[in-house]
Amino acid sequence: MNFQWYPGHMTKAKRQMQEDIKLIDLVIELVDARIPLSSRNPDIDDLGKQKARLILMNKADLASDEQNEAWAAYFREKGFYVVKLDARTKAGMKAVNTVIMDACKEKFERDRKRGIKNRPVRAMVVGIPNVGKSTFINTYAGKACAKTGNKPGVTKGKQWIRLNKNVELLDTPGILWPKFEDQRVGLYLALIGSIKDEILNIDELSLELIAILQKHYPGLLEKRYEISKEQKPAKILMEIAKNRNCIKKGNELDYGKASALVIDEFRSGRLGKITLEFPGE
Questions:
Q1: What number is the average pLDDT over the span 50-78?
Q2: For residue 269, what are the CA distances in angstroms to 5, 65, 90, 177?
Q3: N or C, fewer C-beta in 10 Å, the chain?
Q4: Residues 63, 275: contact at Cβ < 8 Å?
């Protein structure tokens, strides 16, 4: 499959981030825990290199526990602070504030030396579309979310949202699109639903997913769908269609329905906790 990405507002978003980044202490980057590298934009590392960095591995409940730990260690080794969470259920959210304070220790020390007391951390939440930025912000802010108005020295029109007494968020968070020269990145984004299904070949997508599951999660498909072991992906899809009664008119197997079923069960977590890419792969 060939994946295309049309970053319509990429240049504008990047320019906005370059301007805004000067005003902030901390870059909070959301990634999808199932594809922690493919759901990042590499430009963020360049844009935020002088800032404290926090990676939030969102949807960690859908990813392999073992691989969550491996990815957290991978990012920490590169100098990031890391929190695994599920912004929808609030799992892991309690840890965020503590880690933000830890990540910004140098900022607090600089403030102390300058005689500045209790200035909140100014943060920016970034990430590619569909990693859960809005859900995270809404969950983190809760009902106490209040705009604190323009601050001195801040470009007119920019608003700071007080998330709590310690953290303020720039209300024009950077949204960047992923770059992918590597088609595998496009495949992973398609599998988690970041590329519209309407423009994809769902049958081919499901065969790619089946191949990944066979390699990294042997036995999972056989157990879930009660099918024979060690077959080619197309034969597995055929057995899934039979066993799940995916039949269309004329008593023919409905591969489209079976394909959609497999992808939906992966995305919803019904296939289990699955990570698609691995550190050092």
A1: 96
A2: 26, 13, 17, 25
A3: C
A4: yes
Q: 142: which DSSP letter?
A: G
Closest CA to 45 of 31, 35, 34, 33: 31
DSSP conformation class of 231: -
pLDDT in tens, 209-240: 999 999 999 999 999 999 988 799 999 999 99
DSSP code of 184? H
Output Rg (C-alpha) for the chain, integer angstroms.
22
CB-based contacts of 112, cutoff 8 Å, min separation 6: none
Q: How far is CA 120 from CA 26, 166, 169, 192, in A?
A: 11, 5, 10, 35
274: tokens are 């699955």
The better pLDDT of the pair 254, 6 is held by 254
Question: The whole model's pTM is what?
Answer: 0.89
pLDDT for the residue 151: 46
Q: Give one DSSP letter per residue of 192-224, joined into a string.
A: HT-S-GGGS-HHHHHHHHHHHHHHHSTTHHHHH
User: For residue 274, how many C-alpha atoms fall within 13 Å in the half-sphere facing its CB?
Assistant: 26
Residue 273 phi/psi, 5-degree rounding, is: -85, 115
Q: Which two tokens stand for residue 3?
A: 């994946």
Distance CA 79, CA 10 (A): 26
Residue pair 119/94 in contact by the 8 Å Cβ criterion:
no
Cα 178-63-136 angle, rounded to 5 deg: 60
